[in-house]
Every structure is written in structure tokens, then in C-alpha cells.
Request: fold
Amino acid sequence: MSELLLALHVGVYGPDDPRTIEARSRVAELLLPSSRERAEALLRENVDRAVRSLGEDTRETFDARRALFAAGTDPQAAAAELELLLARARDALPESDDLIQIIEISLVAVLLESGRPERAVELAEAAVGHALERYGAARLETVTRRAYLATTLERAGEDERARELARELLPVCRAALGEGEVTSIVRRLARKRLPSDG
Reply:
């Protein structure tokens, strides 16, 4: 069904249209668990088409590269590529563009996967600092970055810091985001029992 939808996008909008590039990326994401080779081919095609039709430093090209690097089988190489991509995106895109946060999240995930939890935490902390400076503590952009830092700390094995941050953040999440998915994750971290509790 997803391949059919992609064919429809190609027929209606053309293979290089941003809407087709986005559809191709969604199809690749669905295929990754079962057909990595086909998914990676689609992601490489997206990068080629985005560069050719839209240019090197466009939002669509950055996102196409992010998806390709994040899907790679070599976490060390993916982390290096995503670090470079993040720096380039920060130079080319407005600071308010949410793609910068998406690239940050992809990079943190790959760093954790590649066994570099200290660097992942460092990057997540820097993203929070940047958001605090730009938006203030109560804005959605800052709250979501702080919540992601809490989950990063947990994944990096820093459970006590994750729980402390989650407890501090929970009322802010409720006020800024309501009772959605992010608040639920923060609540779970805030209530997590540690071995030292027993």
C-alpha cells in the first residue's frame, strides 16, 4: 500500500517534488525493519533528488540526509555524519526550525547506540541550554528538550539524574503540554524506583 501511495505521488507531483520526497521517506521508514536494502535505496534516492532539485542547504535536503544517516548500520559513521549535518543545518536554517531538534534527537539516539553515552548526554544538555537561552523555561521547545534529556540520562544509565530532572519537570510538562505522551514519559521517569529506594 505504501509503495502504491509513493507511485501516486510520483505520478501526480513528479519524483523530485518535496511532497514526493516526504512520501518516499515515510515508505522507507516503514520498510526499514523488514527490507533494509530497499529502504536505504529509497533514502539515498531522496538525497540525490533533493540535492538535484532543491539544492544542498535546503530543509528537505537536510532532512533527507538525516533520515539516511540515522538508518545506517554503522552507528560510529552515522554519528560523525549527523554531527556535521547538525552544524551545517544550524548555519543554514533559522534557529526556530524544528528540523534542528529532529537532527539533534537522531544524533543523540545514534550516539547512545554507538556506545557514547557521555557525548549523547552532553549534546542533549547543550540543546536544553540553547533552548533556555532562546525561548525561556516554560516554552514548548524547552520543555520537550528537557524531557528528551531526562530520557537520554536514563538510557545512558544515569537513573538518579533522570529521575530528579523528571520530578522537577513534571509540573512544567503538565502546564505546557497537558497529559500527552511526553508528560506520560516524564511521569514514568519521575516515579521510577531505583535500587537505592529498596
